[in-house]
Specification:
XRE family transcriptional regulator; Lambda_DNA-bd_dom_sf; 2 domains; 434 Repressor (Amino-terminal Domain); mainly alpha; Cro/C1-type_HTH
């Protein structure tokens, strides 16, 4: 199944950003991802979409969030603070994650996130 044109544009833009961030040419990126330069160009120009296996490989190899490849939103998710937090999350245990959730809820304001009541309840019931 092919991506819609909008989805392909979001993916292509994410791929270009990751390539630029790593200071890679199209040829270098294609070599790193073990596919042809023409396939790389087609992905960036939204002429084709990767298989699920290629999508996974591209995200893992270029350190791209799958969300950034699929969802287009207007929040800055490329900043160093955001990326540092994403890098640290897998290193956290449940207790640390609960503290992070509670902190985020407090910073954002309990009324401004949907589902914040359940987040607050889960955090309060965890062993912090």
């Amino acid at each position: 199944m092919s991506l819609s044109i909008n989805d392909a544009q979001v993916f292509g833009a994410a791929l270009k950003r990751a390539k630029k961030k790593k200071h890679l040419t199209q040829a270098q990126c294609a070599e790193l991802l073990v596919h042809s330069v023409s396939f790389q160009k087609d992905l960036e120009r939204c002429r084709c979409s990767p298989s699920i296996e290629n999508f996974y490989h591209i995200c893992r190899t270029l350190d791209i969030s799958a969300d950034d490849c699929i969802f287009q939103d207007h929040h800055d998710r490329t900043g160093s603070t955001y990326q540092e937090l994403l890098r640290l999350l897998p290193l956290c245990d449940e207790k640390a994650l609960s503290v992070l959730v509670a902190t985020a809820v407090a910073l954002i304001g309990a009324g401004s996130i949907s589902g914040s009541d359940s987040l607050s309840i889960n955090v309060c019931n965890s062993e912090i």
